[in-house]
Amino acid sequence: MSGPAGPPGVRSLGAICLALGSLAIGGCEKESQKPLASDTLLGLEADQVLVGVEMNLTRAGVRNAVLVADTAFSFQEEGLLQLRNLVITFYGASGLEEGVLTGREGEYRFESGDVEVTGEVEVTEAVGSKRLVTDRLRYAAEADSLYGDTAFVLYRPGLEMRGASFVSDAQLENVQSLNPSFVSQGDPTSAAGAPPE
Fold first, then answer.
1. Under a CB-based contact definition with an 8 Å cutoff, are residues 88 and 67 in contact?
2. pLDDT in tens, 96-118
3. What SS3 class is residue 182?
4. What is the DSSP letter of 151?
5. In the chain, what are the domains?
6. Radius of gyration from C-alpha coordinates of the chain
7. CB atoms within 10 A of CB 47
8. Is the pTM here over 0.90, yes or no?
9. What span, in angstroms and rounded, lies between the C-alpha atoms of 129 and 28?
10. Are strands 80-91 and 62-75 parallel, antiparallel or unpaired?
11. Residue 185 confidence (pLDDT)
12. pLDDT digits (tens, 9 = 90+) for 48-86
């Protein structure tokens, strides 16, 4: 009889440590290679600095997303990874891609599997042209949902939806907001990369 399942994504910590070991070995082979991270990033008081991170985010033992980041800083006592330039690709029960979340920075919590993303945050559906932009949101692993408490804009063919907070699925099929405003004839292609006001 197997033991209790660990929190979402924790199993990936071993893979991250293995990747760190590989990076350390590779660094010994090429001493003249330039540092991959800036002095500012390397100066953070992290337990480990990882470059080129890829990890599975799981729910009930099933992969439902893949997180990729340029750089990650591991803080073991706090139980988190600080991430730079991250991309999260979400998958449905059938294994098909459902949506993509990007942002400049993020924090991954080992205990819950939640990820908070900040800076030029954008969510796009895998099939279609719906796109949500905001400054900050949180992916809650247990609920498999996106939560935002800052201004956002949802672009979809023929319509823009604006609000101060939202709850959504990764496919942007069900976006809920208190007191949203709507602008007809919104064009998601004309406002690419535009942050919410």
1. yes
2. 999 999 999 999 999 999 999 99
3. strand
4. -
5. 12-146 (2.60.450)
6. 18
7. 10
8. no
9. 46
10. antiparallel
11. 60
12. 999 999 999 887 778 889 999 999 999 999 999 999 999
